[in-house]
Amino acid sequence: MDGLHCEGSGRPAGAAKRNIVKGNVMTDYAPAGADRSVREVLAEVYAAWAANDADAFVQPYADTATAILPGSYLRGRQAIRAAMAALFASHLKGSKAVHEVQDIRFAGADVAIVTSKGAVVLAGQAEPDAASRSLETWVLSRDGGSWRVQALHNCPQQAA
Fold first, then answer.
1. Largest Cα–Cα distance of the chain, in whole Å?
2. Contacts of 64 (CB under 8 A, 6+ apart)
3. Helices and strands in the chain, H and E counts
4. Per CATH, is 33-156 categorized as 3.10.450.50?
């Protein structure tokens, strides 16, 4: 065996079979602690949003990351930073975003797919408006031990 997979399992070396218990239960292969590390990256993004800090917001994004937001396709970390800086200086000034991870699954030891629900709490609001609720898909990859956002897709959540 080439050392990339556990003998006979098809899993990457060092990967453990684990169930993700938040939201939908999925069986995935991931290194120990990977789900926590991925959640920490998302927490970092949302903390930067609460600080309205576009530079910190994109810090965990890969240089070639993409973001699809309602009506926008942003290509590259700098485009994402510019868009967030403009929003933090205008419509989203003083806002924070909230999110709830629905599930995390690992397509391999170094690729995580996260689905979450989010919402924006505008300045002066105690709770987000229903219109700000969204569904999100995040793709992260691990490079050199650090998890990076490769892609984000955000779309409006339809009222139930």
1. 59
2. 76, 77, 150
3. 3, 8
4. yes
Distance CA 8, CA 95 (A): 50
Length of the chain in terms of residues written: 160
In this structure, are residues 99 and 22 in contact, taking their beta carbons and an 8 Å threshold?
A: no
Residue 136: Cβ within 10 Å count: 21
Distance CA 90, CA 92 (A): 6
- Amino acid identity, position 79: A
Residue entry with tokens 């994402």: 80
Q: Model confidence over 47-71: pLDDT tens digits?
A: 999 999 999 999 999 999 999 999 9
Give residue-wise pLDDT tens across range 89-104: 999 999 999 999 999 9
Cα–Cα distance for residue pair 5/127, rounded to 1 Å:
47
Residue 26 CB contacts under 8 Å (≥ 6 apart), including other chains: 19, 20, 103, 105
> Which residue is it, tokens 């898909």?
137
Give the sign of the dihedral formed by CA 26, CA 29, CA 32, CA 35.
negative
C-alpha 90, offset from chain centre: 24
**pTM of this structure:** 0.81
